[in-house]
């Protein structure tokens, strides 16, 4: 191969962010393998949410990455803890709604101040609502939170381990690995940024509205509608585009079809764990390039984790996912349009990162 061709291949590898995808896949799969070996695969969601720590701090220098990934780990564990406590207490719907609003407000402020990337509370909300729905005996609360914390600690270690490769791997290894740009420091003035507070109002109204509509229609798994609505609302200061909603709906439909092909043959759990690893890798590689394509991996990832924890009729699970996603995206679009109206009245809001 010519030197030019080799250089092109190296650039392609770095652009596709294989490094991020590999560490996210390992953070997802290895804790699940441990649970499978211990005979407690029903606890997969708790390990999976801790493993989501590895999707943060995608391309930061390691000092900044330790801060952002550590912050994300604490937020994920706290969200799981809140959901698990709600489940153990058999809390009423109003208590779950209050917890959701609290996670959205505090989570959005944490994301803005710590400059987390991806800049969203979606994963914190997902962790809260899923764990709140899983029946939890009181004596299992500490165990489930501990599994999440251990998985998050493992994911944190993976996220910062690349410094050894960059320092001791030689020029050839460093040429393949993604370059690490400088990351700006924490931004405490985000606490008073009106763009951040507009975003908080949007996600709170979108989440509560989508959840209410889903409950009114009586469709199972209403948290999918809440997550879908939050996913559509852009982060503070970003353009209020409707493209993300279209990508999420059609990507979810495609992802549901893929999941159907996976679940209906009733494969063994070890096959599903491999699927989770592949899906996590594909999602991380594609999410920055095409959101709709990434949903082809995100949807099977989320559905397979849910199915491992609570096996049920795949047909009902998949239909619920499509219906709830459409509901959530429709409510989210309403809030995106409302955000456009507010911005037109206020004038263009400054981006949340001050650039």
From TrEMBL:
Signal peptide limits: none
A Pfam family hit: FUSC_2
Principal cellular location given in the protein's record: membrane
Protein name (record): FUSC family protein
Sequence intervals crossing the membrane: 20-48, 69-88, 94-113, 120-136, 142-165, 196-217, 294-310, 322-342
Domain Integral membrane bound transporter span(s) in chain numbering: 210-334
Compartments where located: Membrane
Membrane topology term: Multi-pass membrane protein
Top-level division of the source organism's lineage: Bacteria
Listed InterPro entries: Memb_transporter_dom
Keywords carried by this UniProt record: Membrane, Transmembrane, Transmembrane helix
